[in-house]
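Record pair follows.
FIRST:
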Amino acid sequence: MRSVLFVVIGLVALAVLGPLLAPYDPTAIDIPNRLSAPSARFPLGTDALGRDILSRLLYGARWSLGLAFLISVLSLLIGTSIGLIAALGGKSADWLLMRATDTFLAFPELVAAVVIAGLMGAGTWSLIFALSVTGWMRYARVARGIGLSVQNQGYVVQARLAGMPGWSIARWHFLPSLIPSLTVVWTGMFARAILGISALGFLGFGVQPPNPEWGAMLLDARVHMRSTPLQMIWPGMAVVTCVLTINLAGDALRDALAKQSSHE
């Protein structure tokens, strides 16, 4: 649990404090120093427009991590709501919502997000919408499964007999049971959101220039991949490091919860 907390705090600190640590303006063009190798002045070198790569990476953390957090939270809210409605709304609502969930799961998330973003047009809002509406299905299935198992528990039956409203039952009896499992799912989806943002940014559908998002940095650097490969290596390493760290933290959280459940 502590490792997960440290990871979350570290990523939040990177997104919030990164711009404060950047040595230069990430959008400042300096043509005389374009494609500079790493040096004391530019620790990670510069891109084709002479912009400092370190500064762009630090500023880009706010876009990549901040948007990934927002998208994963929106997906969590959408999926949990749909899952609870399916579990509590009766057989007809359950069948309809789960068939809709299965339909969404039938399409690869990234392909569906690219299609949606392409239809809406490139930009930050279309990116958020595309990745949010293609990332809620796992939350819905988990919430439905737990909801179905909880609704027949004695304390839930007693609450219904006592006349407690459905929304109150969901709040006080269902959500506490959902939080541990959904937290584990959320860590994985947070990492997937970072990959999705970077992929759409690399395809030109995400955050638009001159904003220094990591996927957009990969897109800008691809032209000079052979002559100056470090331009692509740095943002690629940033994406891989964040995704790997979040996934490892999610695995640690899952193991901790499983160990706690076995003791109980």
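SECOND:
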Amino acid sequence: MIHLGIFAKTFERNTSAKLADAIALAGYECTQFNMASIGLETLPASLDHYRLSAVRRDFEASRVAIPVISGTYNMIAPDPKVVEQGRNGFRLLAEAGKSLGYSTITLCTGTRNAEDKWKYHPDNAGEEAWRDFRSELDWLIQIAESCDVTLGVEPEPSNVISSPEAARRLLDEVGSDRVKIVFDPFNLVDWSTRDHASETLLRAYDLLADATSIIHAQDMRNDGKPCAPGAGFINFERLLNLFLRGGFSGPIIAHGFAESEAASTAKFLRDLLPTTKAAP
């Protein structure tokens, strides 16, 4: 069954109970969690499992599930110490999955840019970057198998997996059920060719739908900036209909907008998902 969710970082609350209540009251059934939402780093150096269990109880009390968590680090950073530190943090998240209830950890496939893991570098397209990414991914697959979690790979223009074609190549090479796709239309279209956005997303769907486990609902304005679904030029009705007809049953996670738009965004998306009912 499809569940409608939102990035936990959309809300700023000083307790996990208030955070869970805010998500539920805005009309969402689940969340993509981030350790930053409880005052930690996205990939913390240590975790208190008793505290995480308390967080899970707070979310269960509000009937908000936590199917996925952000575990992003620069997987091909020029400094190997940065990569190793990220991998160690990822391992902690994988081990904490049962405490919070999530089964998927999202990744940043990485960039050669040493300053920002979300910024482009021309060397990202080279075979050396690809080899380094594959080597690091192999480590994460081992961790995922030992902790029974799934890896969520999202094609992003600034990273080594920069396109649907690169993601398809990865899926075909790896051949592991531990590697799934996070389909975010914002990162698959180019604002300069926005008139062809629907055709671009259809091609991406054809390449990646069979491996997509999460949809990120993030729209794009005419200037290329992110906005709430329904406020930009991406045709979410057509896109979600494709996935529904294809049997998609994972979470749809909204993000890219302010808390003030959370409730209206939930309503917009829910109206496109007639089989989804709001949590009581």
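COMMENT: The beta strands are 3-7, 30-33, 65-70, 104-106, 150-153, 179-183, 212-217, 219-220, 226-227, 251-254.
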